[in-house]
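Please review the protein record below. Tell me whether the encoded fold seems credible here:
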Amino acid sequence: MAKKLLKPEFKVENIVASADLGVDLDLYSIAKASPDVDYEPEQFPGAICKIRDPKSALLLFKNGKIICTGAKTEADIRRAINQVIKIVKDHTLS
């Protein structure tokens, strides 16, 4: 006799999203200008930006690509990326 499968409850804990700013970034100057950005190219090729509200982490790459993790909604992703744009806008290479 087959067991009846339950319908599990779930909730979204983490969304991963990618974006492309369409410009090259100067990761050294971004990290120097912002206390929220860490950049150690010997360990990882991207800079890590930690946002407090919404709580998320964004990986910034020299080619302008971004990976956003930790957000729980699409709206939070948009807010986090918009905050990063404010941080990096004066540090583009192209």
Notes: The radius of gyration is 17 Å.
